[in-house]
Specification:
The structure holds 2 protein chains of 2 kinds.
Chain A: E1 2-6, E2 9-11, E3 23-25, H1 27-43, E4 47-54, H2 58-68, E5 72-77, H3 86-98, E6 104-108, H4 119-126, E7 131-141, E8 144-150, E9 156-162, E10 165-169, H5 181-189, E11 193-196, E12 207-213, E13 222-223, H6 228-241
Parallel strand pairs in A: 1-4, 1-6, 4-5, 5-11, 6-10, 7-10
Antiparallel strand pairs in A: 2-3, 7-8, 8-9
Helix pairs in contact in A: 2-5, 3-4
Chain B: E1 4-8, H1 19-34, E2 37-44, H2 48-56, E3 60-66, E4 72-75, E5 100-103, H3 114-125, E6 131-136, H4 139-152, E7 155-166, E8 169-176, E9 181-187, E10 191-196, E11 213-219, H5 231-238, E12 241-246, H6 252-257, E13 260-264, H7 271-281, E14 287-291, H8 293-297, E15 318-322, H9 328-331, E16 339-344, E17 357-360, H10 363-375
Parallel strand pairs in B: 1-2, 1-6, 2-3, 3-11, 6-10, 7-10, 13-14, 13-15, 15-16, 16-17
Antiparallel strand pairs in B: 4-5, 7-8, 8-9
Helix pairs in contact in B: 3-4, 7-10
The chains are: A alpha/beta, B alpha/beta.
């Protein structure tokens, strides 16, 4: 079985003049990679490729993925200006995946930084593969996957999907492993396949960020001042006044 | 004729989901900015009475009636009974029970099939050179919207919370980085798919003062035709089977009935701190302990204790958030709480914007202190 896991490198810190941006693996994609590793273990065979569309820093995240147990890594380098457009990212991934006949493509339900939830289902549509989003449990059977999708209010929907298909994975489906020492040693020797997005004929942008904004306050939060003790006493009095505490304070 | 903004209704085949009225409210705002007309689109079969009921409420409705005779699903479970979450599936490699083929309506216990939504909606919108399409940013909407956008060559802005006019075009507001930042996004395409964040708009109240209308389009149900794609992919499309709905764990009732909720987030840190929170809970009347998704995923709390759109939606008299940063899906599950206290080391956590009382403190120090003071074990005079 050939599995592709799409992994995003998300910034760990704010970029500044003095500090270089550090990247880490998008949490939801770590769940997707772990699920691929579990599938391979349950089958006793299989090949897992990881792909990341991202800037220079994505390479460290691919190394971690190899350390966790992925077999091969592909890095498609893009410029920061292109990182926002999910269709751009999906097109690059789909162009790579089209060449390799994957049985299963896994990715996280969204990225932690942009939270757009689009790349997985867009890759599926570009490849004309069926897609299940928000997958919270999955198990392979013969030529398919039994899966649960998570809906609102804790409700789950069960489906059987045939292969090939694309799954976007919710957090909590498994517990992502740490890279092993032998895995990291192997990863250090592996050179990811590297492409520049511009050489692959990417599509024009479909959307742009006009400007950023700060969330406004929904309630007029009273910020308590003082030592921790003083804050706790003030809080106790506020709760007491509102009749929310079971017992009288002091 | 005025241009239109289309709202794709979310429904379970019997009832229009409340989120649809939020989408109508959002579309109404866009319509007022651009003098568009709002039109509601229903996808499914046997929905004529549902669609005409909406038209009677004064809305222009388009029903995309998908022929159900070609919609054959194979199912192995009884769809009328809920399957408990703990039910085990057959082990990998074992044989399925012999499947029996049935004709099923498109919506069974609220399940929806994204294949049919994508195909019906792209058939309907392809002749439109430009189109504004609103879907719900829910598990259902997110399952078909990105694929629909690809089919239509449309930009897709997800989790939209607001809209503004900008020199004849429109910008849309969406959250990033767990709600810490917002971005105004501008689509660059003629067709645009927008998924609207639940809870961002107050549901539209329909007064039937305007005249509604109902148009019915019949759509042939053929999500993918053999010949379009390779045989293995065609088989994959045909091979999808709906297996039923699983109800949430019963302990969610504890949260929705509670008048005080002590909720813990990633900042809670340890099991010991969680034990202190449980002790603290005894000081309140009808108090339950809940948590954010990340805490429930980690196993510190059960999934039945999760507050948020994918967990329990609550509105207690007091909501105390211990170390919860406040992702939108969490905030939308508790923003109706009467009184909110947020305790977090990070003063920029989005939960602070939702709080009546903000306490910027380290949980490890403040939690034991708070227990001592609130329980009366430590009198305020002791400190002087």
């Amino acid at each position: 079985m050939k599995i592709l896991v799409c992994i995003k490198a998300v910034p760990e810190n704010q970029e500044s003049a003095t500090q270089k941006t550090e990247y880490r693996m998008n949490l939801f994609d770590a769940f997707a990679l772990e699920q691929a590793l579990l599938f391979r273990e349950s089958l006793g065979e299989g090949c897992i490729d990881v792909i990341s569309v991202g800037m220079e820093g994505a390479a460290s995240v691919l190394t971690r993925a190899l350390g966790m147990g992925a077999d091969k890594a592909v890095h498609i380098k893009v410029r920061k200006a292109h990182m926002f457009d999910p269709f751009y990212t999906a097109s690059l991934i789909a162009a790579h995946a089209e060449k390799s006949a994957y049985d299963l493509i896994l990715t996280g339900v969204m990225s932690e930084d942009l939270m757009q939830s689009q790349v997985g289902p867009m890759v599926a549509e570009l490849l004309l593969m069926p897609c299940a989003t928000s997958v919270i449990s999955a198990e392979l059977f013969r030529q398919g996957v039994y899966l649960d999708r998570e809906l609102e209010g804790g409700i789950r929907e069960s489906w059987a999907f045939s292969l090939p298909c694309v799954l976007t994975v919710q957090s909590g489906i498994n517990t992502p492993r740490y890279p092993s020492l032998s895995g990291m040693l192997r990863a250090a020797r592996h050179v990811p396949l590297c492409f520049n997005a511009n050489d692959l004929g990417p599509p024009p942008a479909r959307q742009v960020i006009k400007r950023l904004a700060v969330p406004e306050k929904k309630r007029n939060g009273l910020v308590l001042k003082g030592t921790p003790e003083e804050k706790a006493v003030t809080l106790a009095h506020i709760l007491e006044e509102k009749g929310l505490l079971n017992r009288r304070v002091s | 004729m005025n241009k239109k903004i289309y709202v794709i209704a979310q429904h379970d085949g019997k009832v229009i989901s409340p989120i649809t009225y939020e989408l109508l409210a959002f579309a109404g705002k866009v319509a007022s900015l651009q003098s568009f007309c709002v039109e509601l689109v229903l996808v499914g079969n046997t929905l004529f009475s549902l669609a005409s009921a909406m038209a009677d409420k004064g809305i222009a409705v388009t029903l995309l009636d998908v022929a159900d005779d070609s919609h054959v699903l194979t199912n192995t479970t009884n769809h009328e009974t809920a399957v408990p979450v703990s039910t085990q599936r057959p082990a990998p490699g074992t044989q399925d029970p012999a499947p029996k083929t049935q004709h099923l309506p498109l919506h069974i216990n609220g399940h929806h099939d994204s294949r049919i939504y994508k195909q019906a909606l792209s058939d309907f919108f392809t002749p439109h050179e430009s189109a504004w399409i609103c879907t719900a940013h829910t598990a259902q909407g997110m399952d078909f919207s990105p694929g629909l956008a690809v089919k239509l060559g449309a930009a897709h802005v997800t989790g939209v919370q607001d809209v503004e006019a900008d020199n004849g075009s429109l910008n849309f507001l969406r959250a990033m980085e767990n709600g810490k930042k917002l971005a105004w996004v501008s689509p660059l395409t003629q067709r645009v798919v927008l998924s609207i964040q639940p809870g961002a708009y107050k549901p539209l109240k329909l007064d039937a003062s305007t005249e509604g209308a109902l148009t019915v389009h019949h759509i042939k149900n053929s999500p993918v035709t053999a010949g379009d794609i390779s045989p293995d992919r065609h088989k994959a499309w045909k091979g999808i089977q709906f297996k039923g709905i699983k109800k949430p764990p019963a302990d969610m009732k504890g949260l929705s009935d509670a008048s005080v909720i002590l909720a813990v987030g990633n900042g809670i840190g340890s099991q010991e701190n969680l034990d202190i929170v449980r002790t603290l809970a005894r000081l309140f009347h009808k108090c339950a302990v809940g948590g954010s998704r990340i805490v429930c995923d980690s196993g510190l709390l059960s999934h039945g204790q999760q507050v948020g759109i994918t967990g329990a939606v609550v509105a207690p008299r007091l909501y105390m958030a211990w170390g919860i940063s406040g992702a939108f899906q969490h905030l939308a599950g508790m923003d109706q709480s009467e009184f909110v206290v947020s305790i977090n080391r990070d003063p920029t956590a989005p939960m602070m914007n939702m709080a009546d009382v903000c306490i910027v403190e380290d949980i490890d120090t403040f939690l034991p202190m708070c227990l001592a003071i609130l329980s009366g074990e430590k009198k305020k005079d002791d400190m002087k």
